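FORM 7B: Structural annotation worksheet

SECTION A. Query
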Amino acid sequence: MHTNRLQPVIWGTTIMTGIAVIPLLNFINLFFCSGIILGGMAGVFIYSRHASAEGVPLTHKDGVMIGLLSGILSAVLVSGINMLMMMYSDVNPVIEVSKMLNESGIKLPQEVDLQLSKFSDEFSRYGFSPTIAVFSLVSNMIIYPLFGILGGLLGVTIKSKRTNKTER
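SECTION B. Predicted structure
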């Protein structure tokens, strides 16, 4: 008998995505992707509650699966939400970044300026940069599942230690 992981994955995804897209709250991810890790852990804690009620032991495989699936779903959602936000924004973020760098006195190499100009042209033409959107999706598809798995494994370890202490 095995407990359904769908609800814990949805909760993990919701927490990861919410932390990533809510302004100010998203600063949590600056600390070693803590929001992603918290989402994986939360999914495991929810799963653990259901599993213990049914007498199913919590395993590291459960933590990996919950963290991985939550991370994949969240990566897709965060990338999509960020792309939509770019499309509906009147601001070209590439121009804003270039202005900030120039005001800070940071001189970029000519090749970087050329590439930024290409991204800026994409924003002007499409309302977003397809290149940046693809790069963002690919990087999120690496980062979110990895840190989600880490959160899932930490969740299993914490729950296992708590369970062992209460059994003594």
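SECTION C. Observations
The mean pLDDT is 93. The radius of gyration is 20 Å.

SECTION D. Sign-off
Analyst initials: ____
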